[in-house]
Design goal:
With 335 residues, the chain is of the alpha/beta class. The protein has two domains: 65 residues; 178 residues, Dna Topoisomerase Vi A Subunit, Chain: A, domain 2. It contains eleven helices and nine strands. A four-stranded parallel beta sheet has the order 5-4-6-7, sandwiched between helices. Strands 2-9-8 form a three-stranded antiparallel beta sheet. It has a two-stranded parallel ribbon with strand order 1-3. Helix 9 links the parallel strand 6 and strand 7. The N and C termini lie close together (5 Å). 34% of the residues are buried.
């Protein structure tokens, strides 16, 4: 085990506390398929060395990318094993024909097993692992949708110094936290609330601000899902919603985006324990209740795209293979 704090290499039999600095190890690579050191490296890369806050969705997908890269390495190992077996057959049987058949069958078996695993996103596994890790080591960069339950953002939309040029409504509370902690609201002069009216103080301030400035655009950001596609109509007709009666500009993931042939990360609806999937069968995944989250990209890329979207009025998401979802990103892993 390699300590994330002091880089000391320690044997499992020497205990779960670092003998040099006292760090408490939580994960065991043999059973968790990831180590404390590797998880710390993933968090550092995702946050760009602590510069960016991120959501649980973004971190869970990063873990899935890491495991997908390990599956690719397993495929390479399987092909090497098939080559070794074929060489043994050639040596013993003195025949290329049998060796070729054995080699092809073993390679096909390795490809079949790894490809099945590569399209699965083990989100429940990632979620349980992170929950256990956070009980011992809180993740400061993680936005959890609770940052402003007791406190409020310093920028008040009713204050002339912070008067927004637009209001952005997002689906989830943790997206509010992530955007505010990354100063998106300040960089783009945007007041941000969730569909539930979180943070309450900001939602109330936005309502009062709209009474004085009714022409301020109110934009809606949502996932690619049946719920997301209907969210605009739902909120506009809901008399209990904090901004009831306000017309919304939809800048969420368009149904057109999921009509292309690229494989996208489809996640189960929140609260469900089923696995996610990389799939190009978009309509089938939609009908089954799955969603493509707007935050499947890393924070920096997501913030740049959203910044262009609030100005241009359309969120343009790149294909997953353009941002590393298909092949993963190299991470040092020393156990």
């Amino acid at each position: 085990m390699r300590c994330p704090d002091c880089k000391h290499n320690q044997r499992y039999r020497d205990g779960t506390r670092c003998g040099k600095c006292g760090y408490q190890f939580v994960l065991r690579k043999r059973t968790d398929t990831i180590s404390d050191y590797t998880l710390r490296q993933i968090i550092k890369r995702l946050s760009d060395q602590g510069q960016y806050s991120f959501t649980a969705t973004q971190l869970e997908l990063e873990l899935c990318r890491y495991w997908r890269r390990k599956i690719t390495q397993a495929l390479i190992g399987g092909i090497a094993f098939a080559s070794l077996v074929a060489a043994v057959v050639i040596f013993l049987a003195h025949g290329w024909g049998i060796a070729s058949v054995v080699f092809i069958l073993l390679v096909l078996l390795a490809v079949w097993r790894t490809q099945r695993k590569k399209i699965v996103l083990p989100l429940a596994k990632a979620r349980k692992l992170l929950k256990r890790y956070r009980q011992t080591h809180p993740i400061a960069e993680l936005a959890d949708g609770q940052a402003f339950l007791q406190q409020t953002p310093t920028e008040n939309p009713e204050d002339a110094r912070y008067a927004p040029e637009r209001i952005l409504v997002v689906e989830r509370d943790d997206l509010v936290d992530m955007l505010v902690r990354n100063r998106f609201h300040a960089h783009h002069k945007t007041a941000i609330i969730s569909r539930s009216g979180y943070p309450r103080h900001v939602a109330e301030a936005c309502r009062n601000f709209l009474r004085q400035h009714p022409n301020i655009p109110v934009q809606l950001l949502h996932d690619a899902s049946l719920t997301g596609f209907n969210l605009k109509a739902q909120l506009e007709s809901d008399p209990q919603w904090p901004l009831a009666g306000q017309r919304l500009v939809d800048i969420g993931v368009s149904p057109e985006v999921v009509k292309n042939g690229a494989r996208l990360p489809w996640l189960p609806q929140r609260g469900r324990q089923s696995k996610g999937s990389l799939s190009a069968r978009h309509q089938q995944m939609l009908n089954a209740g799955y969603r493509v989250p707007v935050d499947f990209l890393a924070p920096k890329a997501f913030l740049n795209l959203l910044g262009a979207a609030v100005i241009g009025g359309l969120l343009l998401l790149p294909a997953p293979d353009a941002v590393g979802l298909e092949v993963g990103v190299e991470v040092d892993d020393f156990g």
